C-alpha cells in the first residue's frame, strides 16, 4: 500500500530542495504519495518590526509560493510537484533568479506552464491565503519551525532530513527507513550530527550556486 506523506517546503531553502530530490528518489523505489505544501522561512525568521511576507506585494519565497498555490489550485498536486522541481533546479543548479517575477515567468514558460500565472498570482489575494493556511497549519499542528518538514501518514512529523547532497538509490531508501523508524519513538525530539569545520566547507561547496545567486541574507531565529 502506498504511504501518503506531506512535504512542507520553501523554494528559498537549499536544504529543503536537496531533501525533495531525495524523497522523489525514494518515491520511485518504494512508492510514496507526496502532497507538497508551503512553509515560509521569511515568516519564521522575520526580524521584529519588519513586515510579514503576506504584507508585501512580492517577497523572495512567499511570492514564489503564491505562484505555486495558484498552480496547485488550478492544475493539482502533480503540477505543483513539477513546478517545485523546475524552480529548484533552475535556482540551485542553473543560478537562475527565480525569485525575480519576470525571471520566474521565463522559467514557467520553459517548463510548459503559462507565464501569466505570476501576474495572476500576485493580483489574487487568495493565493496569499492559501500559502498562509499551509504555513499556519504546519506550525500549529506539527510544531513546524523550518523546512523541510515531513509528515508521515501516522501524523508523525520530522524536521529534516537535512542532507547534502541528496542520497540516491539504496542509500536513499536506507535514509528513508531511518527517518520512518523515528516514529517508533514519539518523544525523540532531536538526533543531530554536529557540523565540523570540514562539514561547513562541504556544505559551502555544495551550495556555491545558491550562495552566489540569492539576493538576501540568511536570518535564522532560534528554534523552539
Notable characteristics:
single chain, 224 residues, alpha+beta, Glutaredoxin, 4 strands, globular
The dominant shape is globular
Order of helices and strands: EHEHHHHHHEEHHH
Q: How big is the Rg?
A: 17 Å
Given the helix and strand composition, which structural class is it?
Answer: alpha+beta
CATH domain fold name: Glutaredoxin
Count of domains: 1
Give the rounded overall mean pLDDT. Answer: 96
* Quaternary state of the chains: single chain
Distance between the termini: 35 Å
The overall strand count is 4
Low-pLDDT stretches:
none
Total helical segments: 10
Q: Into which percent range does the helicity of residues fall? A: 40-55%
Layout of SSEs?
Elements: E1 3-9, H1 14-30, E2 32-38, H2 41-44, H3 62-75, H4 77-92, H5 101-110, H6 117-123, H7 126-142, E3 149-151, E4 157-159, H8 169-181, H9 197-206, H10 208-213
Helix pairs in contact: 1-8, 3-4, 3-6, 3-7
Amino acid at each position: 500500500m502506498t504511504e501518503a506523506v506531506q512535504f512542507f517546503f520553501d523554494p528559498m531553502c537549499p536544504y529543503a530542495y536537496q531533501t525533495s530530490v531525495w524523497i522523489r528518489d525514494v518515491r520511485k523505489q518504494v512508492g510514496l504519495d507526496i502532497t507538497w505544501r508551503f512553509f515560509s522561512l521569511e515568516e519564521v525568521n522575520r526580524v521584529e518590526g519588519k513586515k510579514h511576507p503576506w504584507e508585501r506585494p512580492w517577497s523572495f519565497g512567499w511570492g514564489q509560493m503564491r505562484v505555486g498555490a495558484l498552480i496547485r489550485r488550478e492544475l493539482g498536486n502533480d503540477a505543483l510537484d513539477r513546478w517545485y522541481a523546475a524552480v529548484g533546479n533552475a535556482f540551485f543548479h542553473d543560478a537562475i533568479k527565480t525569485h525575480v517575477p519576470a525571471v520566474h515567468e521565463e522559467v514557467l514558460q520553459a517548463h510548459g506552464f503559462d507565464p501569466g500565472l505570476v501576474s495572476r498570482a500576485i493580483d489574487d489575494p487568495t493565493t496569499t491565503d492559501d500559502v498562509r493556511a499551509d504555513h499556519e497549519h504546519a506550525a500549529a499542528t506539527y510544531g513546524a519551525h523550518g523546512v523541510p518538514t515531513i509528515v508521515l501518514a501516522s501524523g508523525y512529523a520530522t524536521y529534516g532530513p537535512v542532507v547534502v547532497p541528496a542520497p540516491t538509490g539504496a542509500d536513499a531508501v536506507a535514509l528513508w527507513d531511518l527517518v520512518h523508524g523515528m516514529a517508533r519513538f514519539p518523544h525523540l525530539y532531536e538526533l543531530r550530527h554536529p557540523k565540523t569545520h570540514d562539514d561547513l566547507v562541504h556544505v559551502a561547496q555544495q551550495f556555491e550556486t545558491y550562495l552566489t545567486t540569492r539576493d538576501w541574507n540568511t536570518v535564522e531565529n532560534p528554534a523552539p
